[in-house]
Amino acid sequence: MNDLLEKYWDGDTTLEEEQALRDYFHGDQVLPEHEMYRVMFQTYKEERSRGDEDFDAFAKVNKTQSQNKQFTSTTWKSILVAASVSLFVALGVGYYNQGPMQDLGTYEDPEKAYEATLAALELVSNKFNKGKNNLQPLTQINKQTAQVFNINQNKK
Fold first, then answer.
1. Computed over its alpha carbons, how large is the radius of gyration of the chain?
2. Which of 25, 86, 126, 134 satisfies CB 3.0 to 4.6 Å to 41 for a cystine?
3. Is residue 55 one of the residues assigned to a domain?
4. Residues 56-65 pLDDT 10s
């Protein structure tokens, strides 16, 4: 019987051998060393006697999924309603808060526009030239670095 139990635990038994184990544990001649397995084999018998027609392993899962689908569709409808109300409120506020158009500094006369553009470009040019003057020390450093590298290259 110990060999048959080992095969059972390894998953190597045939259906006939498993039936022999069930018969053994349901009988009255179970050895004391095997008594601890008796409850397990009796539980198997009780589960089989219940019948599989009444048992639906997915009943609870299916019920939960259907509730989640209902919750999801209700939630999406609520979100859709809230989004459309928000859109209408935003459009209404934007429509009613339109004031007079601000003057953006446009010129009616092309000559004045040209002069203003030249003045703006001259201001930018002056700022760039001022920044370029601050780079003079870097020019000196670059020249000295070039001389050092040229000396090293000539020695090779």
1. 45
2. 25
3. no
4. 666 666 666 5
